[in-house]
Write a structure and sequence with these properties.
By secondary structure, the protein is mainly beta. Helix content is 2%, strand content 43%. It is built from 3 helices and 51 strands. A 5-stranded antiparallel beta sheet has the order 2-43-49-46-47, with no helix packed on it. A hairpin with an 8-residue loop joins strand 40 and strand 41. The protein is globular.
Length: 636
C-alpha cells in the first residue's frame, strides 16, 4: 500500500476520548501550535543573576522621562525596583523604634542551631512572622553575638507576643552565629529598629477563623479577620507620571518618587504632606491616564470626615484630577467615590481601550470618565462571569481575556465564553483553595494568552500548570511550569516572568533561546490520538514511519539535535497503551522501522532526554507532515 499522510488538527483536545479524537492531539508539554503545526516553545533565561526574597506575584515595567528603564517587583515580603540588573529595595517603612529594643539569647545552650535564636523585646512592635527589621545602635551581648552581628537587617522568625519576637543570629555573610555563655548582655540602651511594612502570606486563606493567622498570633479561641498581613500577598502598581503608586492587597497606598532615585523608599500616600482624605487601605490601585485620576478599588470609606481604615470591598474612590493627594469630594474638584452592587467583593481591575474594566467575584463592570459633576460612570456589563483572581485578566490586541472560576472568557464590548478543548481538564484539576494565585499572560509575538493555575494533581499549592490559547488560530495547548507573575513585552524586548529555582526567586526573560535557563529543556512532547484503519475492523500493521521534522538551531551554536519517536499500541479503547518502539530522529534520519501490530496505535514525539547535554540544548523542533506505511493485518 502507498504511504498515508497523517494530517493532524491543531490544538490539544482533552474534552473527548482519545479514540474519538482521531486526527488530533490529546496531550503535550512545552509545545505550541503555530500556523497549525506543532513546535517546541521558546526558552527562558534569567534577566539578572540576582534574586529577590519571597514569591514575586506582581511585575510592572516603565520608562522614565530620562530614559531609565525600571521593573517593579512585588513579592511576599518586599517591593523592589530593578534597574540594570540590580534589585533595589524600596519597601515602605511601617515603624521606627528609637532606643527601645533589647535582646536576650536562648535560655539553653546546647550547641544546636537553637543557640542562634535571639529574643527581641520592643513594646507594641506590630510585627508578624516574616517581617523585616533593620537594627542599629546595638552593642555586643558579650560573646559571639557581637555588635556587627546584631546591627543589620533581620527577618522575624516568630512572633512570641505583642512586645517580643525572635530572630536568628547571623554574620554579615548570612551564616548562622551561635550564642555562648558570655552572651549575657541586652544590647545596650540605644538600640533602634526600622520595620518595613508587614509581610503577607505565600498561600491564600479563604475565610476568617482558624488558620487565618500564624501560630501564636491573637488569643486562644478567637477568630482572625483577614487583612494584608494574614492573606496571600499580591501587589498592584501603576504609574502616576514617572512616579510609581503601589499597594499590597488590603494594605496601604504608597508612592515611590522617581526623581528621588532607587536608593529611596516608597512612602505612605495618606501621610504625605498635602494629602487630604487619601484612602489608607485598598484592594488595588489604577491610574486613569487620559484624565489623570488615581483610583483605589476597595478603598476604606469616609466616616465623619475621616477614613475608617477598613477595606470596603465594593467601594471605588478616586482622586481629584491631576492631584493624587486630594480625595475629598468638593464642588471645586473631581474627587469622589462609587459603589458597585453586583457581587460581594472587587477582585481586580484592568485598563482597557477607553475604559477601565472592574471585576467582582460575580460580575464585570465598565468604568468611564464622563467629566464633572459625576466624573466617572460605571456600567454593569455582565453578571455571572466574575474574575477568579486579581491577576487573571489580560489585554490582547483584539480584546481582553480573563479566567473565571469555571471557564475562560473574552471581552471586546461584550462578554463571550471561549470555546475551549481543555476546559474540563483545567477546571477539574484547579486547586480552588489557591485559585487566587491564577494569572493570565500575553505572549503577543505568538498571538497567545497563557493561563497559569495551581493543580490539585501536582499537590504543591503553587502555580504549576498552564493552558495556552492562540487567539488568531483558536487552538489550545497545555503544560507544566511554575511561574508566579508575568509581564508582556513592550518596555522589555521579551516577556518577563518570575519563578522559583532552588528556593530562590528569579525574573526570567521568556522566548529567549530554546533552553530552560542554563539547562536543556526536557520533557517536551506531543502525543496523538489513536489511529486505526477504517473503524478498527482490521488490525493494523505499521511497518515504517517517515518523519517530517524541522530542527532549528540557535544562532551561533552547533549541535546534533534529536527527537524521539515513540510508537504505542492497544487493541481496545479502554486498554492502557503499551510502548512498542522508540526511535531517535535526527536531521539525517530517513525513516523509522516500527513493525507494530495492533488495532490502533499512537505516535508520540518527545525530546530525547537521554541525549548528551550539549546536543539537548540550543534548538527547537517543528513537525511537518508525518507519513506512515500501514497495511491491514487480519481481523480479530
Amino acid at each position: 500500500m502507498p504511504f498515508t499522510k497523517l494530517n493532524f488538527r491543531a490544538g490539544i483536545n482533552k474534552e473527548e476520548t482519545d479514540y474519538s479524537q482521531e486526527g488530533g492531539w490529546v496531550d503535550g508539554n512545552f509545545i505550541r501550535f503555530r500556523k497549525g503545526r506543532v513546535e517546541k516553545i521558546g526558552g527562558w533565561e534569567k534577566l539578572s543573576a540576582n534574586s529577590v526574597v519571597g514569591s514575586a506575584r506582581a511585575l510592572h515595567g516603565w520608562v522614565a522621562l530620562g530614559g531609565e528603564k525600571y521593573l517593579g517587583v512585588g513579592t511576599t515580603f518586599k517591593y523592589f525596583i530593578e534597574e540594570a540588573g540590580t534589585f533595589n529595595d524600596v519597601t515602605p517603612i511601617r515603624k521606627t523604634s528609637t532606643n527601645s529594643i533589647t535582646f536576650a539569647k536562648a535560655s539553653s545552650l546546647d550547641g544546636s542551631s537553637l543557640d542562634a535564636i535571639i529574643t527581641v523585646t520592643d513594646n507594641s512592635h506590630g510585627a508578624v512572622e516574616g517581617d523585616f527589621v533593620t537594627i542599629s545602635g546595638a552593642v555586643s551581648l558579650g560573646g559571639n553575638i557581637t555588635a556587627s552581628v546584631l546591627n543589620q537587617e533581620y527577618q522575624v522568625q516568630a512572633v512570641t507576643g505583642a512586645n517580643t519576637y525572635t530572630i536568628q543570629a547571623k554574620d554579615t555573610s548570612g551564616d548562622i552565629v551561635l550564642a555562648n555563655s558570655s552572651d549575657t548582655g541586652n544590647g545596650g540602651s540605644g538600640v533602634d529598629g526600622v520595620y518595613l511594612v508587614n509581610s503577607g502570606l505565600e498561600f491564600f486563606v479563604s475565610s476568617t477563623g482558624w488558620g487565618a493567622n500564624g501560630w501564636g498570633a491573637g488569643s486562644w479561641g478567637t477568630a482572625a479577620t483577614l487583612s494584608a498581613t494574614n492573606q496571600l500577598r499580591i501587589w498592584t502598581h501603576d504609574n502616576y507620571g514617572e512616579d510609581l503608586i503601589i499597594n499590597p492587597r488590603a494594605g496601604g497606598i504608597f508612592r515611590w518618587v522617581e526623581n528621588d532615585g532607587v536608593s529611596t523608599r516608597a512612602v505612605n500616600l495618606s501621610t504625605t504632606s498635602g494629602a487630604n482624605k487619601v484612602p489608607t487601605v485598598g484592594l488595588q490601585v489604577i491610574t486613569s491616564e487620559t484624565d489623570r485620576h488615581l483610583i483605589v478599588l476597595g478603598a476604606d470609606p469616609l466616616s465623619s470626615g475621616t477614613r475608617t481604615g477598613s477595606v470596603d470591598p465594593m467601594l471605588i474612590a478616586f482622586s481629584d484630577q491631576e492631584n493624587p493627594l486630594e480625595f475629598e469630594p468638593k464642588n471645586t474638584n473631581t474627587a469622589g467615590s462609587l459603589r458597585l452592587s453586583s457581587g460581594s467583593s472587587i477582585i481586580g481591575g484592568l485598563k482597557s481601550r477607553q475604559e477601565i474594566l472592574i471585576w467582582t467575584d460575580t460580575s464585570l463592570y465598565s468604568m468611564n470618565f464622563i467629566g464633572p459633576p459625576l466624573t466617572f460612570a460605571v456600567n454593569l456589563i455582565n453578571e455571572g462571569a466574575g474574575l477568579i483572581a486579581p491577576k487573571a485578566a489580560v489585554n490582547a490586541p483584539n480584546g481582553v481575556f480573563f479566567m473565571s472560576k469555571n471557564a475562560f472568557y473574552f471581552y471586546n464590548g461584550s462578554v463571550q465564553k471561549l470555546p475551549c478543548s481543555v476546559q474540563d481538564y483545567v477546571f477539574s484539576d484547579l486547586n480552588i483553595e489557591q485559585s487566587f494565585k491564577c494569572f493570565a499572560a500575553l505572549n503577543e509575538e505568538f498571538s497567545e494568552v497563557w493561563f497559569f493555575y495551581p493543580s490539585v494533581a501536582d499537590d504543591t499549592r503553587e502555580i504549576s500548570r498552564y493552558a495556552i490559547y492562540n487567539y488568531e488560530e483558536g487552538s489550545w495547548s497545555i503544560g507544566s511550569l511554575e511561574r508566579h507573575a508575568w509581564l508582556e513585552s513592550g518596555v522589555f524586548d521579551k516577556p518577563l516572568a518570575s519563578g522559583d529555582v532552588s528556593t530562590n526567586e528569579f525574573i526570567f526573560e521568556h522566548e529567549r533561546g530554546f533552553n530552560d535557563d542554563d539547562s536543556a529543556m526536557d520533557n517536551v512532547f506531543v502525543e496523538s490520538a489513536d489511529i486505526d484503519i477504517g473503524d478498527g475492523d482490521n488490525f493494523v500493521f505499521l511497518r515504517k514511519v517517515l518523519p517530517d521534522i524541522l530542527f532549528v538551531n540557535q544562532a551561533g551554536t552547533n549541535q546534533d539535535p534529536a527527537v524521539n519517536l515513540v510508537v504505542k499500541r492497544r487493541d481496545f479503547n479502554n486498554q492502557t497503551l503499551s510502548t512498542d518502539s522508540t526511535s531517535q530522529i535526527k536531521n539525517s534520519t530517513t525513516f523509522s522501522s516500527a513493525r507494530t501490530r495492533a488495532r490502533q496505535f499512537v505516535l508520540r514525539f518527545e525530546s530525547d532526554d537521554d541525549n548528551t547535554e550539549s546536543d539537548r540544548k540550543n534548538y527547537k523542533w517543528r513537525l511537518g507532515d508525518t507519513r506512515v506505511d500501514i497495511i491491514p493485518s487480519g481481523r480479530k
